[in-house]
UniProtKB/TrEMBL annotation:
Domain annotation HTH cro/C1-type: ranges: 10-65
GO molecular function, one term: DNA binding
Top-level taxon in the UniProt lineage: Bacteria
Leader sequence segment: none
UniProt cross-references to SMART domains, sorted A to Z: HTH_XRE (SM00530)
Pfam families: HTH_3, N_BRCA1_IG
InterPro entries: Cro/C1-type_HTH (IPR001387), Ig-like_fold (IPR013783), Lambda_DNA-bd_dom_sf (IPR010982), Nbr1_FW (IPR032350)
Annotated protein name in UniProt: Helix-turn-helix domain protein
Organism: Methylomonas methanica (strain DSM 25384 / MC09)
Amino acid sequence: MPLFEFAEFIRSRADAQGLSMTELARKTGISRQALYGILDGSSGQAKVSTLISLASALKVHPVVLFRHLLHQLELPKFSTTGAKYQFDASGFVTETVPDHSSVTTGQIFCKTWEIQNIGHVTWQNRKLLCVDRPASSPRIIDGVQPPLYSERCLTPLQTSIDIPETLPGDTVLLSVQFKAPSYPCSIISYWKMADEHGDICFPDSEGLSCLVRVVSM
């Protein structure tokens, strides 16, 4: 995006909020001259903190503003190794229930991952799928019947969740509810992104996971 288009985006958002350039500068915490310097490029690259304040004044997410700004730059193209779609890439941001968190036997809990579209492909009609492999049938040892698989696995209450449309640069929160097994153990569940045909988008990547330590109450 040429610089004048970035400036037009700022002006159009300001108009939508009923703000003059003077009022926008005041809400951003900078001078009117500094604001015009950002718009025409004469002040060089603006500080991240200034852009965040500007986004807040315009009532847009900072990522949206950054994306518009970055479009004016000649960014290198790239491809993620093993991605199904060229220039598609996903990045992990943060999560709740970090690895090795403790849960109690039989507990139902919610795990949330935040991921970011760091590629150049819009995510549409995608899902997050559980890719856990079914365990082999338990063997009877010394006449003792081991617990059923359903009692010794980390059971997701849903094995597929829809991923909202996610533009390049945007982040998305994905949440799954799990039920802990009935027996103390450490256990993990694996998840990967799939397209509308059910094909894994990043087959060579580790994907997302939920690793917990199950303890008795």
